[in-house]
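Justification of resources, computational component.

The compute hours requested in this renewal are based largely on the per-chain cost of generating structure records like the one below. Each record pairs the submitted sequence with a full structure-token output. That output is archived, and it is also reused by downstream analysis tasks.
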Amino acid sequence: MAAVDSLNCTNEVRDQDNKTNGESEAVSRNFHENELKGTTAKTKESVIRKSTGGWTFASLLLVNQGLATLAFFGVGVNLVLFLTRVLDQENAVAANSVSKWTGTVYLCSLIGAFLSDSYWGRYLTCAVFQLIFLLGLVLLSLTSWLFLFHPSGCGDEELVCSPTSSIGVAIFYLSIYLVALGYGGYQPTIATFGSDQFDEANPKEIASKAVFFSYFYFALNLGSLFSNTILVFYEDTGRWTIGFVASLGSAVLALLFFLLGTPGYRYLKPCGNPLPRVAQVFVAAARKWDVVPSNSGDLYEVEGPESAIRGSRKIFHSNEIAFLDKAATITNHDLCGTNDPWRLCTVTQVEEAKCVMKMLPIWLCTIIYSVVFTQMASLFVEQGNVMKSDIGSFHLPAASMSAFDICSVLICTGIYRQVLVPLAGKLSGNPKGLTELQRMGIGLLIGMLSMVAAGATEIARLKHVVRGEKISSLSIFWQIPQYVLVGASEVFMYVGQLEFFNGQAPDGIKSFGSSLCMASISLGNYVSSLLVIMVMGITARGKSPGWIPDDLNTGHMDRFYFLLAVLAAFDFVIYVYCAKWYKCINLQDSDEKEIQIMESQEDVVLKKV
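The structure output for this chain reads:
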């Protein structure tokens, strides 16, 4: 790479031969002293890295994730039934409300990621958004107790709640959107903060970092298992306030476990606002629209191992999206003028913008899968609510069927790590087994099959409808295949997404990379809501009740499921093309030999300590 230290036209030429012997000796002596200081500093830094972070403190974050997820799903998993039973909303309206709320949850992940990468850092961002999360749960518990449940115990499908006051409804919506802001802003940052506890420069910890994301998603589902079984039972029987208070207690415990590891976490400093850096690349390239990009070796880059972006490693040049290379092409105007970042950018800065551009097509292809995934929290619940769910005298809540999804995730995660990874590794030669892109493609296919299974279940349910009865005689356990398939698809899609976007994002936007996974779920919810509105607008004409009417026995929800399966199939074709085009980021890594030397020095120092 061409290095430019000064962009002035009048560069002075210095004759090094006029140096005196005394000056040479002084320079040599200073060089050795600085080298010794640098080695000592590196050793101290390496010892600090070895005594902090690692699995001990990453495990605290996993516990925190499990408890926070329990609290969140204690609110979200049964929200669609809360809206229909307590606030008296229709099925389609309630499904859209849940989709918009869930979309807002994950859209807030972009806010948390931006603050984390730019200004606050991971730790402070996690702490602040968890406090907002707690505030939302406190308000929700108080609102439900004081304003919403009159008479006591209503909302159990038998005892009808009295009309709620406008103040109570307003505070309720404020509280659940505070929950959305807190949980959404905290999620991508906690995933990235957990991966920070493993040093990418150490080959021994690279494998642990990849495994961490699987355990992270495992903890997420383990936490939601309790809320989808025990808490759902209390809420379904009208004891909603108990469920909300239990969620609040879980969130308090999650925050305490997070704070417990404060002295031992590894902290990475924020790299500054990435928006101006990315904007500078596009502006500089536009200002040089008529310039032919230079060869990779002639592009502008700063000297030394450090990049111009604070706290970020250098990124090697890539050939994709070549027009952005104009931003790093040195012209005569650049040589004669002052260093203007809006006209000349480093290769690392250009590659950071390229990484964002290259990840976007992959990310867009994941949105349709998120549309499939979000049906589990809305239409799956409404479908199960009109199926036979009594086991003797025990009534099984429809929302608790998501426990089969969670169990599927937990089992498939173990099978994937213990069976598929070693087997695929032997066949492909890749120690990871399947690449992240391959796993995401498999997840998309399994998600498509889950919609086919849901459609088939709905056809069978409609055949068992008794005239005049709301509940079909078909058992709710016919929903098990669709839940299991969704769970299996999550292991491939969402764990693959977390690894892919976190691994492919440059150092300066790591949290943004993790937030892309959450933002995909967010847009999936909004697209789902839009699809429901469009489908009802087209199909509910004249005397036709539409595909998803208030009385599902008169509709055709199976056709909506099959529509999603067709969309997923088209999306898969586009995804395969984008995945073949994608080229991975190429970061400048540390020398492995130096790492081994440093580790031996660390062992000696730690033994003495």
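Confidence is low (pLDDT under 50) at residues 3-48, 590-609. The CA atoms of residues 271 and 508 lie 5 Å apart.
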